[in-house]
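ERR on first pass: missing label on line 2. Operator R.T. fixed the label and resubmitted. Corrected input:
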Amino acid sequence: MLGLMQQRELLISSFLDYAEAYHPTVEVVSRLRDGALHRIGWGGIAARARKLAKALQRFGLRRGDRVATLAWNTHRHLELFFGVTGSGIVLHTVNPRLFADQLRYILNHADSSVLCFDVEFAPLVADLAPHLPSVHTYVALGHRDELPDHPLPNLVAYEDLLDAEDADFAWPRFDENSASSLCYTSGTTGNPKGVLYSHRSTVLHTLSLMAVDTMAISARETILPCAPLFHVNCWGIPYAAAGTGAKLVLPGSRLDGASLWELLRDEGVTFAAAVPTVWLTLFAWMEQQPGLDPAALKLRRVLSGGTAVPRLVIETLRDRFGATLQQAWGMTELSPLGTVGNLTPRHEALDAEAQMALRLKQGRTIYGIELRVVDEAGTPLPRDGSSVGLVQARGPWVLSGYFKGVGGQAVDADGWFGTGDVGTLDADGFLTITDRAKDVVKSGGEWISSIELENLAVGHPAVREAAVIAARHPRWQERPLLLVTCKDGRSVTRTELLAFLEPKVAKWWLPDDVICVDALPHTATGKVQKAQLRRDYADWLERG
Amino acid sequence: MLGLMQQRELLISSFLDYAEAYHPTVEVVSRLRDGALHRIGWGGIAARARKLAKALQRFGLRRGDRVATLAWNTHRHLELFFGVTGSGIVLHTVNPRLFADQLRYILNHADSSVLCFDVEFAPLVADLAPHLPSVHTYVALGHRDELPDHPLPNLVAYEDLLDAEDADFAWPRFDENSASSLCYTSGTTGNPKGVLYSHRSTVLHTLSLMAVDTMAISARETILPCAPLFHVNCWGIPYAAAGTGAKLVLPGSRLDGASLWELLRDEGVTFAAAVPTVWLTLFAWMEQQPGLDPAALKLRRVLSGGTAVPRLVIETLRDRFGATLQQAWGMTELSPLGTVGNLTPRHEALDAEAQMALRLKQGRTIYGIELRVVDEAGTPLPRDGSSVGLVQARGPWVLSGYFKGVGGQAVDADGWFGTGDVGTLDADGFLTITDRAKDVVKSGGEWISSIELENLAVGHPAVREAAVIAARHPRWQERPLLLVTCKDGRSVTRTELLAFLEPKVAKWWLPDDVICVDALPHTATGKVQKAQLRRDYADWLERG
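pass 2 clean. output:
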């Protein structure tokens, strides 16, 4: 027997409708290319998103077509988030920092018809254009007088598009399982793979972001998302901000200390989402400025994800800003959210050091996502905080497969998605990521965390960067091999570094060798290319 | 093009799974019949709910069958919330305060197979049983030694049922649109009508309850729901408590001042949901107790709905308890939530009196529900805080029709449900209910609020209770007629009462006559039966 409740589709347009109806004057503040701040209310964003929707119709776009973006966090990019998806068209956000061959691959794989780009990316787009047969229209996100000189087919200025339309447009209704947006994983190996979100998955994920125990986004917040809009839909923050009428402060491309400080102070930011590097940059800038009073800011919560957060960042935010840092863990395939570091009353009764231990974990499992760790045979391991295994996820905002079937079966028969992360879960649902599955060192059946060894190695005063890979070993199958680069004018020997590590790790975790190199290879997003290192050094221990 | 995300069904069992996995030791505290407190963790609730599910299977119940309850707020009733719905069976909660003929009608209309009841309702159930052909099993919610002596077919003790099972049971997965629970409106006219919720509507409604701007239920809260579990699923609080791992404090049948104070103080209640009467009872009891310090309680938020909240209650909670009262508005047909009185930063910048004016409204429209006011022709009215019209609602947790089609079409072609309430909406989405549509007085095309006149009339020191009805009028179609009862030993004349009202209302709002009566007729839930009054007095002004 079915219930007798309304079958109202869960559509992204409902968030913008809510913001427009009840919070039309709440501001969206954007840092423009010239550094100036642009202000518009949610009502204005909604009206412009509707004009955009009409312009897209005029382009002949149909539901399911893709519109790609190469853009920073500004109101125009935000309008695309709603105008494109609200029309039933798929928003394909692309990371402009990727290598040119990756950009070509992604844009062609997605078959995007329209490419919208920030004017400063015009040279990049001009280089790409000859290789993008599917793109029939290029939209420069600015006014006509900002149009680049580069030759691009059907190049139009975004503001001209909007000026030609009125806002008399009602968001269409369609199947909530329709595709809404497309993000590609940054994949350190192989080609990027596309994750195709649906309106339903996005709405459910956004409802979670509004929950107290998740991101607690509400009308009370002024949110500074330093995480890029092209990075997993900026963790879904734009949708939750609209769905609650929160004030948004979009930093454009400027994440330097002075620019961020100005936004934090002048816009009354209460909640910021940014990786640790952003905070370290801000702290370094602050040290050069006399008389700053971070405690006077309204900043109370900081969300950080994507990489483990150094204790120093947590403590500085707590002690100087009076702000709580919450680690979060997620991935493109999870929309992205799986955990957020919210403590419960029981945890808040712990002493400061015990609380810090929890804050250093990657967050607590949120309602809506099921997480588990399994061994290599797929058998679930206990949630005891120490059993290390492969992290799997399941839920209504987890992918079912990659775009166009790339990579084959993405989830098992029970719906579990192998995240590729290795870690532990504790009884409270706190997740600790210890490694990527492909980077872990399997020594005689036991797992050694490459990340943990790297974190220890960079603690040596001479070391700039460290990478641990699994080298083949005749007896133990694999053993850790440590590669380091040194700081300018410094050096370190194998013996010194092993002596430095020895008291800090179990004896069998000690790397079998240490190699000092001039540089480590990196991906476009700054990650060490361990696949490259494995190709070069996997037989190192067998060579001797 | 469809997205490529998991089609994981939204099922109520996911809330209990979450509580069991991550908050197994968080307590559910229940006041038992003898006044003692019973304690169990969410892990225990989950294990017992699974045993219950196995027992229901043994009864031969199939998906879609109905299990009815007549019970107060205790852990056993809570277990039924999860054990029944999680099995795909429909939980039919019944208000034991209804008149016997209503109970018979509702239980027969629902075709419930099993009736679970608190032992104290045994005499009531014994009277009902001969008239309930569909009920084949009676479950007394207690131990075997508490079984009543009344002759009931297939009478079993709940604890015996559970003792006979183990907890080795996995919640089934099924269509998220399957019916989950059934609540009947208390309808002041005609027979009660059933609202049949689905798992999907319940999960979406519950996600809203976790949102900061709605009920903000989280792992941080200790929740005292004085609202009965049989009243629209206790506003959905049990589901949200499980889905966040909040501590629950269930007051049983005891809502007296001493009992509530003990729970508030000893259990560290942070959030309570209760109608104003409960608070007025508590305040009256507190006045008799020396040395109480309500400011020392952990109570910070109070939710109240179902009736307008007197200013005194809001002020006392604020000034003596340090707690914020939030009005909420909803109805059985809305699962029930439509508005919650959360202020935004802009409102919090207002002065105390302006804030109070907002707190006296029935709450702010929440994301997920669309509300509008329309005139009698169905034309939407402006959201200006003053245009009075019929309130309509739409959304994924609004009904599409009543159980078994009773009452015909419940929503219009666009999905709008006519709530039967009359009121205003302002630009921020704050709702003010001025009347029920069937009670409003339509005088020469203008509407006069019966509720507002009644609230003013009871301000007269001699008046105990007041009711305003529309009496037919030869020129104005309808004019207000005021009926009052007087406090013991007090009396008031027509002239005195009209003189009292005259400075408080527009001249054309003044009742055309005042009738002092010995008593007003009431429904089982304590509402004045205006339908009865209309039958008796509608021609009063024409009689003269």
